[in-house]
């Protein structure tokens, strides 16, 4: 069952009921000002950091679900409704929500009034624009009142949610014509404020929530709206809000537009106040001036669309498969931008206060984003590297506002360092910018400890080598990619967190996954050593890689698949000897991608075992059999009920590793089969089972052992986005940026006859047509470029701003 459809031409998903199985959301904003918006206009806005600069308030896991947003109310002669259905929830004559790239358009119609709101965050501006178009579609004149509503958050979302003894006394607002200002905390260290403006005269306003609502009322029936009269309340403490009241008169067929602007501003420290002590509103006036007419808003909206068009032309496929085109050209790349911006901080599953930018997460997100805006990827790499610790380890997370490593979470995730090598290599392959390796970057955000980025990669590499366990495999530390596999962590006391107590018998648990990852990432380190002229070091590094490969094959292979780990007692994890958790997905993907056992047969066997034991109709589960009881020796992984999350859920993030691994051994049919199992466009028809947005990937789909097999959770912010883009664009379609050119090495389903990819690469456009006359999966027979036969399947770097045409024949 579907709840909408794709409109590929407009690059939108069109939802035709407010009652989707869960709020289906979208993201507005591309740089600093961001908003989350659901299909009923729920959600919130923040500046840079969802925790520290939260602009509007949201109530996670409150009821009704999706509690709070930017809401409009229409009071049409006592008939009250909201264009986005919520919060009033009156039946509408028509409803539609179109989620597009960086904007959302919600339309509601009732009693001959059509209200359409376009929400977007303009490029290079710290505000959300809400264009409310009102049309009288009937034959009689209409006179009605429109009320806007947003609730301010007192900036630090974490504190806002709990420190009421203080916060109920701090709220301050100012009112200036049709602009309502939120200036809480402006008297102390803060230099920022927010405002909500409408470009029309208002009949009244409210800034005190409890006055606006009236006692015991909810947002569905605020006093101001039901009595059709704003109270002109001026908040003093408690909960400041902003609500305008505008009277609208429309003749039959007439249309009017109101432009609302929700903005964030900062003042220089010495210009916070006016001489009379009021807020210095100059930056707000400027921002309002930029967008306060239909013409200006039109222009800003067109700019946003152009921006997205230009980003998406960096990689574009034309194939006979509409769903593939839709995923590759629009939604997967869009999600990659969102994960790049948000890491794992703010979604409808991540509260914005828990996690900031993840070291592992953001390095991975970069893999799906780097071709879109390489300069921003560069900046991100330097930010991430600056949180690396001197020993090569890394803070697992940092807050985007401060860019400082989060001490509370610390480090000791054994895979973290290697992700930096992987992302830097991806960036250099995309851009050819080897100079980044010479950038001076602090360790631990301490300028005194700064060293060239290359040194950071070296420490990453040796962090693994300096932390090997009894089998010569990397020590797992607190965890590796799988946060929940806590093999050195004991928790014996009920109620104790899984991750705080350590095994006193010695932290010797080892990770086969990180071993595989070392072999996967290592060759890039070797290549970068060579490019830096460090040939001896390259040789030495290669020896370590070879040794690791041997160790993985010798101690990390279980006969038919790769083991997952050794626990802190030296017992195997993910082995046929285990009672539960006999086989894990991650090492099969990573080790094969690294090329381990490809020539000697272990790789193929491992992937056959994946198919045999881990595959389901909705994708591959992370392990099997699921753990049925909690085991302190395994940690959090065994705390989940069978079939959920890391305990045998279908972890969409790792499925593309298997696709890439299948492509590595040449099985294109299988790689694409797996791709289609989890790519949202292919499973739109089971939206009622899947439950979450059919236009983006979710982190997890409940596995075969779960009661709700097939139901997704944690949509949007997941490494799934980047890895699926890597799997489809590089491993399956085979367009791989490399140090000296664009390598073409497809591994496609045998019945895929032809496709064309337009790829912008280092200042030239490559139009690459892949032909498969003999129905093979892999093997480049012939390459021509600009009509001439090419020597190899690496298309050269032209960097001439021109278009170049390549034909690649498989066979
Ligand atoms: C985290 C990832 C982690 C994965 C598996 C996700 O929630 O964001 O960093 O690798 O879970 O545990």
Automatic annotation (TrEMBL):
<protein>
    <submittedName>
        <fullName>Cellobiose phosphorylase</fullName>
        <ecNumber>2.4.1.20</ecNumber>
    </submittedName>
</protein>
<dbReference type="InterPro" id="IPR011013">
    <property type="entry name" value="Gal_mutarotase_sf_dom"/>
</dbReference>
<dbReference type="InterPro" id="IPR033432">
    <property type="entry name" value="GH94_catalytic"/>
</dbReference>
<dbReference type="InterPro" id="IPR010383">
    <property type="entry name" value="Glyco_hydrolase_94_b-supersand"/>
</dbReference>
<dbReference type="InterPro" id="IPR037825">
    <property type="entry name" value="GH94N_CBP"/>
</dbReference>
<dbReference type="GO" id="GO:0030246">
    <property type="term" value="F:carbohydrate binding"/>
</dbReference>
<feature type="domain" description="Glycosyl hydrolase 94 catalytic">
    <location>
        <begin position="307"/>
        <end position="734"/>
    </location>
</feature>
<dbReference type="GO" id="GO:0047738">
    <property type="term" value="F:cellobiose phosphorylase activity"/>
</dbReference>
<keyword id="KW-0808">Transferase</keyword>
<dbReference type="Pfam" id="PF17167">
    <property type="entry name" value="Glyco_hydro_94"/>
</dbReference>
<dbReference type="InterPro" id="IPR012341">
    <property type="entry name" value="6hp_glycosidase-like_sf"/>
</dbReference>
<dbReference type="Pfam" id="PF06165">
    <property type="entry name" value="GH94_b-supersand"/>
</dbReference>
<dbReference type="GO" id="GO:0005975">
    <property type="term" value="P:carbohydrate metabolic process"/>
</dbReference>
<feature type="domain" description="Glycosyl hydrolase 94 supersandwich">
    <location>
        <begin position="11"/>
        <end position="292"/>
    </location>
</feature>
<keyword id="KW-0328">Glycosyltransferase</keyword>
<dbReference type="InterPro" id="IPR052047">
    <property type="entry name" value="GH94_Enzymes"/>
</dbReference>
<dbReference type="InterPro" id="IPR037018">
    <property type="entry name" value="GH65_N"/>
</dbReference>
<dbReference type="InterPro" id="IPR008928">
    <property type="entry name" value="6-hairpin_glycosidase_sf"/>
</dbReference>
């Amino acid at each position: 069952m579907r709840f909408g459809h794709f409109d590929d031409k407009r690059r939108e998903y069109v939802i035709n009921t407010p009652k989707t199985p869960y709020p289906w959301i979208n993201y507005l904003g591309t740089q600093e000002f961001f908003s989350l918006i659901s299909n009923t206009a729920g959600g919130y806005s923040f500046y840079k950091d969802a925790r520290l600069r939260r602009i509007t308030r949201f109530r996670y896991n409150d009821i009704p679900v999706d509690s709070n947003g930017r809401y409009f109310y229409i009071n049409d002669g006592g008939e009250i409704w909201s264009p986005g259905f919520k919060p009033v929830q009156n039946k509408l004559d028509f409803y539609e929500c179109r989620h597009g790239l960086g904007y959302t358009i919600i339309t509601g119609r009732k009693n001959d009034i059509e209200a359409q709101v376009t929400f977007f965050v303009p490029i290079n501006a710290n505000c959300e624009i809400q264009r409310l178009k009102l049309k009288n579609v009937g034959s009689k004149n209409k006179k009605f009142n429109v009320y806007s509503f947003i609730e301010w958050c007192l900036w630090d979302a974490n504190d806002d949610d709990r420190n009421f003894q203080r916060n109920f006394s701090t709220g301050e607002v100012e009112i200036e014509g049709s602009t309502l200002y939120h200036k809480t905390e402006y008297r102390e260290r803060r230099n920022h404020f927010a405002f909500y403006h409408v470009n029309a005269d208002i009949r009244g306003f409210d800034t005190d929530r409890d006055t606006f609502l009236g006692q015991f009322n909810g947002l569905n029936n605020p006093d101001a709206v039901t009595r059709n009269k704003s109270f002109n309340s001026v908040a003093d403490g408690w909960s400041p809000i902003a609500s305008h009241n505008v009277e609208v008169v429309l003749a039959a067929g007439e249309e009017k537009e109101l432009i609302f602007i929700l903005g964030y501003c900062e003042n220089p420290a010495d210009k916070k106040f006016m001489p009379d002590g009021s807020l210095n509103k100059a930056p707000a006036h400027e921002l309002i001036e930029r967008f306060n007419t239909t013409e200006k808003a039109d222009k800003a909206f067109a700019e946003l669309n152009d921006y997205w068009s230009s980003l998406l032309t960096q990689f574009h496929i034309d194939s006979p498969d509409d769903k593939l085109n839709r995923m590759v050209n629009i939604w997967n790349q869009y999600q990659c931008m969102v994960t790049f911006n948000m890491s794992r901080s703010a979604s409808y599953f991540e509260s914005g206060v828990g996690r900031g930018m993840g070291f592992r997460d953001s390095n991975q997100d970069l893999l799906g984003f780097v071709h879109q805006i390489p300069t921003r990827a560069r900046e991100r790499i330097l930010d991430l590297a600056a949180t690396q610790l001197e020993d090569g380890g890394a803070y697992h997370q940092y807050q985007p506002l401060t860019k400082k490593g989060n001490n509370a979470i610390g480090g000791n995730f054994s895979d973290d360092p290697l992700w930096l090598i992987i992302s830097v290599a991806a960036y250099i392959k995309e851009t050819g910018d080897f100079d980044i390796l010479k950038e001076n970057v602090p360790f631990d955000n301490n300028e005194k400890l700064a060293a060239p980025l290359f040194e950071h990669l070296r420490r990453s590499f040796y962090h693994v080598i300096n932390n090997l366990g009894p089998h010569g495999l990397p020590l797992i530390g607190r965890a590796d990619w799988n946060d929940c596999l806590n093999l050195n962590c004991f928790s014996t006391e009920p109620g104790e967190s899984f991750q705080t107590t350590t095994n006193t018998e010695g932290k010797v648990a080892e990770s086969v996954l990180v071993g595989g990852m070392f072999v996967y990432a290592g060759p890039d380190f070797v290549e970068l050593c060579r490019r830096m002229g460090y040939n001896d070091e390259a040789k030495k590094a290669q020896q370590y890689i070879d040794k690791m490969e041997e160790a993985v094959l010798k101690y990390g292979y279980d006969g038919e698949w790769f083991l997952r780990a050794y626990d802190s007692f030296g017992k195997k994890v993910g082995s046929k000897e285990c009672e539960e958790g006999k086989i894990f997905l991650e090492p099969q993907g990573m080790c094969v991608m690294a090329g381990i056992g490809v020539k000697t047969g272990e790789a193929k066997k491992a992937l056959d075992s994946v198919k045999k034991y881990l595959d389901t109709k909705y994708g591959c589960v992370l392990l099997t059999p699921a753990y049925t009881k909690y085991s302190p020796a395994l940690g959090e992984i065994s705390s989940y009920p069978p079939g959920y999350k890391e305990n045998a859920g279908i972890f969409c993030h790792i499925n593309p590793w298997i696709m890439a691994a299948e492509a590595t051994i040449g099985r294109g049919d299988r790689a694409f089969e797996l791709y289609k199992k989890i790519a949202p466009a292919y499973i739109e028809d089971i939206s009622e089972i899947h439950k979450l947005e059919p236009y983006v990937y979710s982190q997890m789909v409940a596995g075969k052992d779960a009661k709700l097999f097939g139901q997704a959770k944690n949509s949007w912010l997941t490494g799934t986005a980047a890895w699926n883009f890597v799997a489809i664009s590089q491993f399956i379609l085979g367009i791989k940026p490399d140090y000296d050119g664009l390598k073409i090495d497809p591994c496609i389903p045998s019945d895929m006859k032809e496709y064309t990819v337009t790829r912008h690469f280092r200042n030239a456009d490559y139009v690459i047509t892949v032909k498969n006359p003999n129905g093979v999966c892999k093997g480049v027979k012939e390459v021509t470029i600009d009509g001439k036969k090419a020597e190899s399947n690496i298309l050269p770097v032209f960097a001439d701003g021109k278009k170049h045409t390549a034909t690649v024949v498989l066979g």
